[in-house]
Every structure is written in C-alpha cells, then in structure tokens.
Amino acid sequence: MQIGSSNHAEAVKEQYKTSSGLDTRISFHEKYSTNQLGYTNWVVSNYEIFEGMKVLEIGCGTGSLWMGRDDMLSKFGKLVLTDLSEGMLETARENIGDKANVVFQVADIQDLPFEDNSFDMVIANSMLYHVPDLQKGISEVRRVLRDDGAFYCATLGENNFVERLAEWFELGGESFQPNHNFTMQNGARKLQTAFSNIEARIYEDSLHITDIDDLLDYLGSLASLKMLNDVPREKLKEILLGHAVNGVIDLPKEYGMFIAKG
User: Fold this and answer.
1) Nearest Cα to 157, choosing from 131, 181, 185?
2) Spacing of C-alpha 55 from chain mean position
C-alpha cells in the first residue's frame, strides 16, 4: 500500500489540540486491554505518596490520572497540573473540579516556570517522546525536583501495536516513522544525563479487539498513523479483517515506566 508521508510535529499538535482524540484513545484501551487492573491504576500504584507533598504533573491531558482519586488528592499539599494545551487544561478542570490544593497552568517542560527544588514528585506520562529538546526537558525536571524527590515517567516500548499495524498496512520509509525518542528501550540512558538512580518497571498487557470499527476509530486519532486517513475506511477494514481470527484481533502492548531519583 502506497501512502504519503505527513508532518509529524503538526500531526501531534493537532492530535492534542482538544481532548476529543485523547478521550477516544483512553476509552479504547479501557475497553480492549486484557490486563484488568488498568494501565492508569497501575501507574498510580507505583507512586510513593506522603502527606503534604508537592506534586507537578507535566502534560496532564484530560486529568484522567486523578479522576476518582479524591482521597489521594487530599493528601497533597499542592498539585500543579500543566499542559501545553489550554483546551486540555479546561477539560482537566471539568473532570477534577475546583480544589483548593490543585492548580491548572499552561507550561512547557523545556522551560518550566517554577523555582529550583520546588516539588517532591514530578510526573510526565506518555509525553516525553514528543519533547523537541528532550535533554533540556529532563534537566528542567531535575532542576525543579527536590534532591530527595522522584520523577515518574510512563512511556511505550518499541515493540508495540502501532509497529504491528504498520507491518499489516505495509508502511515503511517516509510513510511510517515511529516516534522512538523516549521508549522503555532507550529511556534509562536518556534519564542518566540528570539522574543517578533509575528503575524500569514493565506493565504486562495486550489488546483483544472484538469490534473492528472501534479499532478504525482509534487509528484515526493517532498522529503516527495519520497517513491512513487518506485510505478508504473499507480498505483498511478489509486489511484488518485479514489478520483477525473469528472476527477478533489481538495486538501486543509494551508499556512501562521509569522512576528516576538522585
């Protein structure tokens, strides 16, 4: 299949302009992931939380990490939720509600508007691979983090469902350039420029998809597969059904997180 290339940076910007596409992706994974714990629940279960701590989340998106976790939120002395998108922050505010210890603020990880040693914990989930100057971003995290603090950053692996789908659609060369800027394979090395103690944790999961139309809707929200938008939906469905067994598609998921300290 011959599919033209797309400008990845512009695609990413459009992908995160509003919460609509992100909501599609979150609900898709909630519906079809085989690990019943749930990725967000697993991510949060790794956090070491103490009373009165100051927490910064970079790239908070819709605020989904904190929904239904009022007991946890009440322990924080302050939680600062940041994103590049005002639209995302507005959705996060609607989802979480106004709380005295929660602040919503537009911010760029490459130039954080906070003083040195300001936070006990910094969180950056599924976003570091989008940062143009990643080393600058990591150094900024280290700067605002207290010496005994922890940086939690969840990310993808390089052997994921997107790569599998690219094989099925025969994407290659300029038509498919996966974003491997910060993965479970190379993330530790990149964090080592600012942190001395780095631990990797893997989340075991996969996708068991029983409705191909849901998968097609999901693909339409991905910047990395934006080139598929030029292909008729029925053609994409035909290709996917060719890889289905009894109408079901199984895909790998390679997710995890790093905990960086020191």
Assistant:
1) 185
2) 18
- Give the DSSP letter of residue 53: -
Q: How confident is the model over 8-63, as pLDDT tens digits?
A: 444 444 544 555 677 888 899 999 999 999 999 999 999 999 999 999 999 999 99
41, containing H or E segment = helix 39-45
Q: Which two tokens stand for residue 48?
A: 């070491």
Residues 6+ apart with CB under 8 A from 147: 117
Question: 90: which residues sit within 8 A by CB, 6+ positions away?
Answer: none
The SS3 of residue 187 is helix
Whether 92 shows a pLDDT value over 70: the answer reads yes
- Which residues neighbour 68 within 8 Å (Cβ) at sequence distance 6 or greater? none
Q: Are 3 and 228 in contact (CB under 8 A)?
A: yes
Fold for the domain defined by 8-261: Rossmann fold (3.40.50)
Structural element, H or E, at residue 252: strand 249-261
Spatial contact of 188 and 198, defined as CB atoms under 8 Å apart: yes
Q: Which residue has the tokens 């040693």?
A: 117
Q: Pick the closest to residue 85 from 16, 140, 141 (CA basis).
A: 16
Amino acid identity for residue 258 in this structure: F
Q: In what order do the strands lie in the sheet with 54-58?
A: 102-106, 78-83, 54-58, 119-123, 145-156, 249-261, 197-209
